[in-house]
Amino acid sequence: WGERPRFSSAGIGAIGHAIPTTLGKWVADGPDRGGSEDEKKILQTDAILTRTYRCGELLKCDLSIVHAVDNPNAVHPPELCYIGSGWTEARKDEATVEVGDQVHRVNRRLFYRSAGVRMWVLYWYKAGPDSSSSYLGFQWAALKARFLRRTCPCSLIQVRGEFDKPDLEQEVLTELRKFAAVVIPAVNAAIP
Questions:
Q1: What pTM, to 2 d.p., does this model score?
Q2: Which residues contact 144 (CB under 8 A, 6 or more apart)?
């Protein structure tokens, strides 16, 4: 079977620098954050980036990326971590995000915590240049690249917004989809 594939992370700093701090009406708010030591160990990558963007005073949204080269094990559905850290999943389906004349499918999750805190999460995967809302589709693309002995950058991209007033649920989701529409091309350019 030949040489075992190498598991390495790509420079998340380079990816972070390649994603603009202003995306449409969204402006970065505060410094970029990496993963904790435990997250890096569990995910087998140190390429973890979270950047908060603000759109006016109403909403802050996080862009989070987990990235590894030739290691699809670094990427998994984020609801596993959210549920494990005390969130309860209230809704699980797919949504579409329009970017120009293209329609992208993303996973849509609604979580809640005690004290009325809620969070919308939209996420998708990248295996090389291909984006997918399907975890199995992502794993298949990574496996195919490995079988063909090609390098395969593997990424989980998510955008999320927290809120504490139930009547804002639809408004936050609408704004989060608009945020995803400017994030998708920026991420695709930063992670080809």
A1: 0.90
A2: none
What percentage of the chain exceeds 70 in pLDDT? 94
**Burial (Cβ within 10 Å: 0-12, 13-18, ≥19) of residue 8:** middle
- Report how far Cα 104 is from the mean position of its chain's Cα atoms: 14
Strand partners, 106: 95
What Cα–Cα distance (Å) separates residue 55 from each residue in 22, 29, 62, 117, 168?
A: 10, 10, 11, 19, 15
Q: Evaluate if residue 137 carries a pLDDT over 60.
A: yes
Check whether 104 has a pLDDT greater than 50: yes
Q: Is residue 60 exposed (0-12), middle (13-18) or buried (19+ Cβ within 10 Å)?
A: middle
DSSP secondary structure, 19-37, as one string: S-SEETTEEE-S--B---H
pLDDT in tens, 62-96: 999 999 888 888 899 999 999 999 999 999 999 99
- In Å, how far are 43, 48, 78, 91, 164 from 37, measured between CA atoms? 10, 11, 18, 30, 29
- Taking Cα atoms as reference points, which of 86, 82, 87, 79 lies closest to residue 112? 87
